[in-house]
Recover the amino acids of this structure.
């Protein structure tokens, strides 16, 4: 069964360092997303991506964040200069249709020290 | 900011009990509601995608109803089993909110054998 895969599963970094989280969405899906969950809080939308460009982004997704689909299979989230408050579980998801069900990866836990 | 509320936050039931929980959301510009099941250390998995007022969907012992006019959805589990233990998330697509899904805080269900 096709699935969304994410790497790394856990990353620990120092404040101010750059982090790249990687995702391989399901191959025939066209819509890609990043969500995050800070411990004890709701799952929050970060960004959606379609047709090689950002289609929607939240207030959280500021200039420190960027996304890329460099090679037609990977979908990456980069945080340029991490802050303590970026510590969270980051989930990648993909969907076939714009409002269809999302298929999530197992998440990448980011700890910023 | 779109507010999606789920209640209760957590629920302990005995095996064999039937249970239900609620998702409430602003009814204006409603487009679709998703229910996801999220087991610990796994990725959220879609249960239902619902769009029409009065919609009722069923998957095995789990069913859901939708009232878009008053802004709520119920998820029912009949004859709970320990393997139903998970967090159940609802999420809303709004018609005027672009390509993003807004999640509620989830209901954590624990089924005791």
């Amino acid at each position: 069964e096709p699935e969304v895969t994410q790497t790394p599963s856990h990353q620990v970094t120092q404040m101010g360092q750059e982090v790249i989280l990687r995702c391989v969405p399901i191959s025939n899906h066209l819509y890609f997303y990043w969500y995050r969950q800070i411990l004890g809080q709701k799952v929050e939308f970060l960004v959606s991506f379609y047709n090689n460009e950002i289609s929607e982004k939240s207030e959280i997704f500021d200039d420190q964040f960027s996304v890329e689909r460099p090679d037609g299979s990977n979908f990456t989230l980069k945080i340029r200069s991490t802050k303590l408050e970026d510590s969270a579980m980051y989930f990648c998801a993909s969907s076939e249709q714009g409002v269809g069900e999302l298929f999530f990866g197992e998440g990448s836990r980011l700890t910023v020290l | 900011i779109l507010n999606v509320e789920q209640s209760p936050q957590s629920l302990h039931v005995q095996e064999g009990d039937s249970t239900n929980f609620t998702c409430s959301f602003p009814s204006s510009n409603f487009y679709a509601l998703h229910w996801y099941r999220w087991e610990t250390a796994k990725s959220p998995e879609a249960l239902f995608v619902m769009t029409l007022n009065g919609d009722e969907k069923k998957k095995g012992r789990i069913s859901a109803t939708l009232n878009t006019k008053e802004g709520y959805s119920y998820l029912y589990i009949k004859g709970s089993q320990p393997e139903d233990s998970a967090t159940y998330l609802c999420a809303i697509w709004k018609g005027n909110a672009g390509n993003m899904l807004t999640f509620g805080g989830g209901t954590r269900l624990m089924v005791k054998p």
